[in-house]
Amino acid sequence: MAQAGVSTNGITFSYGIGGNSKEGAKPTEMTLLDRINTIGGISITDEVIDASALEDLLTRNIKGRGDTGGSFPVTVNITDD
Q1: What is the pLDDT of residue 15?
Q2: CA–CA separation, 61 and 57 (whole Å)
Q3: DSSP string of 9-78?
């Protein structure tokens, strides 16, 4: 079965249900959300790492890992189908 609404970013969204009532318990079932309408605010910012030695007269920075910035809004078209 083909998945409708999967973005070109290759991102999928799902939510978990079931499990026990203990906080942090893993869900027993995951449901994939399709028909994603929009994913807003995703931008990747490279981390800057200070690579200076004590004898350096100027600060030396190197590029680190990329960061998406935390959270971003997602709009889903939820229907009974």
Answers
A1: 82
A2: 13
A3: T---EEEEE-S-SSTTPPPSEEEEE--EEEE-----EEEEEE---TT-SS--EEEEEEE--S---EEE--
Question: Which residues lie across from 15 on neighbouring strands?
Answer: 31
Report yes or no on whether pTM surpasses 0.85: no
CA 23 to chain centre: 22
Question: Per residue in 29-73, pLDDT tens?
Answer: 888 887 777 777 777 888 899 999 999 999 999 999 888 777 778
DSSP-derived secondary structure letter, 35: -
The end-to-end CA distance of the chain, in Å, is 14
Give the pairing type, strands 29-33 and 13-17. antiparallel
Amino acid found at 53 = A
- How far, in Å, CA of 60 to CA of 63, rounded? 10
